[in-house]
Amino acid sequence: MEGIYFAAISSSDLRKVMVAQGQEAWLSILLFVNPIVLWLVCLFFAVRVFTPETYKTNLSSPQLGEQFYREMVDYKHRNLLRAYFALLAGFVPLVVAVVFYLRLLGGPG
């Protein structure tokens, strides 16, 4: 989805949409960049789940091993939830940006 969005922005006639000056121009730039930023936040949290780490544990104590395992699973689950919500949050400004783009190019309505 990110690749399609980036390709659409880079190959589109975005200069027609960006004719505004001053603060309005910055708001429209923020509108088109915001989905990409949120998707990068999603990738950051997803990569944290799969990045290998070195863990120290005591194999002689089953309770410590279980506690360590639960903490590791909780850490990974929290990061996956953060990635999920960042991905979902990225679609809201995406829809707004597409509607904004189509309206300014003289789309339907």
Question: In words, what does this structure look like?
Answer:
With 109 residues, this protein is mainly alpha-helical. Helix content is 78%, strand content 0%. It is rod-shaped and about 70 Å long.
How would the blueprint of this fold be written?
Elements: H1 2-11, H2 14-17, H3 23-50, H4 62-104
Q: Count the strands?
A: 0
- Order of secondary-structure elements: HHHH
The averaged pLDDT comes out at: 80
The N- to C-terminal Cα distance equals 26 Å
Given as residue ranges, the uncertain stretches (5+ residues, pLDDT < 50) are none
Number of helices: 4
Helix content: over 70%
Largest sheet: none
Tell the overall outline.
rod-shaped
| Rounded radius of gyration (Å) | 21 Å
Assess the beta-strand content as a share of residues.
under 5%
